[in-house]
Amino acid sequence: MRVLLVEDESRLAETVRRGLVAEGFVVDVEHNGSDGLAAAATGDFDVVMLDIMLPGLSGYQVLRELRTRQVWTPVLMLSAKDGEYDLADAFDIGADDYLTKPFSFVVLVARLRALLRRGAPERPTVLTAGSLSLDPARRRVTRGQTVLTLTPREYGVLAFLLRNKGAVVTKSEILRACGTRTMKVTTTSSRSTSAICGARSTHHSGS
Question: Is pLDDT of 24 > 80?
């Protein structure tokens, strides 16, 4: 189980590295975005742990470039930011999970093992499920010919579910993607997103 940790805080990186090695992981560490991208782009890792605030290239830039190059290695984003827009941006670009600093080491190991169990299936440019489509590049969601409008939280969770289509995900994983601890289920008039954190959808006029 080979993990790449891209983290500019040297003391934190070394603490995490030692802990993961003790758990049986093989860990490589890079301290800036440019070197992190070069290492991750080789595709030699089972999971990439990627801090958002990095010198050189930000974690967002590294992740976007990896997905552009069709490197689908699972990526766990690390950040002190915990806002729903931060979560939505990370999942929109292609993150597989998101962990807020400071974090529990026990939870970190559990998240990594969950990503390893899922693996890294190749992902299409446009994510689909039946007549529902999500285009990350254009940030556009449609059901059939109808364009849907979602909140950032709804969009992030929908992207998470579509990226993990065919895999079993837990309620807690969905709630983390939603950026909340509770889930409210509603039915929308378009019936396009009936159980995505109180998802709602509206039709664009003229669509």
Answer: yes
